[in-house]
Amino acid sequence: MAKRGEEENSRGRKTFTTTINSEKLLPFKIKCVELGLPMNTVLENFMERFAAGTLKFEPADK
Question: What's the CA gap between 10 and 56, in Å, rounded?
Fold first, then answer.
């Protein structure tokens, strides 16, 4: 059973809802457009690598 905000569609994809600081979101969107990459592709790549431990992550601020 999907949690609130996590619904799986017919293609096996889930949606989730979160809030993101708009000052951080806009530069991210711009960079994705510059690189010709969908935001989902970048986010999914991050999630996969982070979960696998192949991406070292250090928060920019606390």
Answer: 33
